[in-house]
């Protein structure tokens, strides 16, 4: 009888240890998962987001991946980019901090590689439609408005129309009826001249420019001073996001959390390396 009790006790201990191991493994996997914005917007990494080992940003022209050998690599049709951190860490992750720095960290917390530091703020690392990666920020404006300082960079020309459905770069336009979109949200200028942020289903209005019926054939443009403006057919400004900032390339990101946010200027890019 005593032997059976010992066997039963050992079995319970084994089951408890196995359950604990499974729980630990599950927690480890959860901790390695990217934040919601990273998981759902595959071309943007925002401040606070993390890409796990083998996590990537991607679009139709490029893949930017933190490989399982700890090397951060950009695969595109051009010269690409590599952080040259091959086997410098184990189970490395890539994150973007509030100084606008991309950070590669090993699983033990060791900092392996980083980009130059900017002022404190919110930033966006964007896989651009030309296949290069750029870090934009700090945050200049969002719905609702938020302001921050920035510095000059050389302008980069993109096509007039947005190439990625959730991004609008300096010099690009949204014409009447066109929109930026994520899975759950739309940001568009309607035929009534209103620039609106709404839910994709049900068209529930979350924010508007209050330019309804104030013009005809209106369009939206993001300039090199970080200003988003609604203009009418005579190119008169009906609404502007805020005062002009220093010249540089900026980006408006329609984020998975429903915010339309302007970041800039571009502070670092793989294209310059």
TrEMBL record:
InterPro entries, per the entry: Bulb-type_lectin_dom, Bulb-type_lectin_dom_sf
Q: Which PROSITE patterns match?
A: BULB_LECTIN
- Domain Bulb-type lectin, by residue range, is 36-148, 165-273
Tell me which UniProt keywords the record has, alphabetically. Signal
Q: What SUPFAM superfamilies does the entry give? A: alpha-D-mannose-specific plant lectins
Which superkingdom, per the lineage?
Eukaryota
The GO annotation for biological process reads: response to other organism
- List the signal peptide residues: 1-39
Xref: Gene3D superfamilies: Bulb-type lectin domain
* SMART domains in alphabetical order: B_lectin
Spell out the protein name for this chain.
Answer: Bulb-type lectin domain-containing protein
Q: What organism, scientifically named, is this protein from?
A: Vanilla planifolia (Vanilla)
């Amino acid at each position: 009888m005593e032997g059976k009790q010992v066997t039963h006790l050992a079995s319970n201990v084994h089951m408890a240890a196995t359950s604990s191991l499974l729980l630990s493994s599950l927690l480890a996997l959860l901790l390695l998962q990217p934040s919601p914005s990273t998981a759902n917007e595959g071309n943007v990494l925002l401040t606070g987001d993390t890409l796990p080992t083998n996590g990537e940003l991607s679009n139709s022209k490029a893949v930017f991946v933190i490989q399982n050998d700890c090397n951060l690599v950009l695969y595109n049709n051009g010269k690409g980019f590599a952080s040259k951190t091959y086997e410098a860490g184990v189970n490395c992750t890539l994150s973007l901090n509030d100084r606008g720095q991309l950070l590669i960290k090993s699983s033990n917390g060791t900092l392996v590689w980083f980009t130059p530091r900017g002022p404190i703020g919110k930033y966006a690392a964007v896989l651009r439609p030309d296949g290069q990666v750029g870090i934009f920020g700090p945050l200049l404006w969002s719905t609702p408005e938020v302001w921050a300082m920035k510095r000059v960079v050389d302008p980069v020309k993109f096509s007039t129309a947005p190439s990625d459905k959730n991004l609008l770069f300096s010099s690009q336009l949204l014409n009447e009826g066109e929109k930026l979109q994520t899975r759950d949200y739309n940001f568009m200028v309607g035929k009534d001249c209103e620039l609106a942020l709404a839910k994709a289903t049900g068209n529930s209005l979350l924010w508007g420019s209050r330019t309804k019926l104030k013009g005809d054939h209106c369009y939206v443009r993001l300039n090199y001073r970080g200003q988003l403006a609604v203009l009418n057919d005579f190119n008169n400004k009906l609404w502007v996001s805020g005062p002009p900032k220093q010249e540089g390339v900026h980006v408006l990101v329609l984020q998975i959390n429903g915010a339309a946010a302007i970041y800039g200027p571009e502070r670092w890019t793989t294209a310059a390396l």
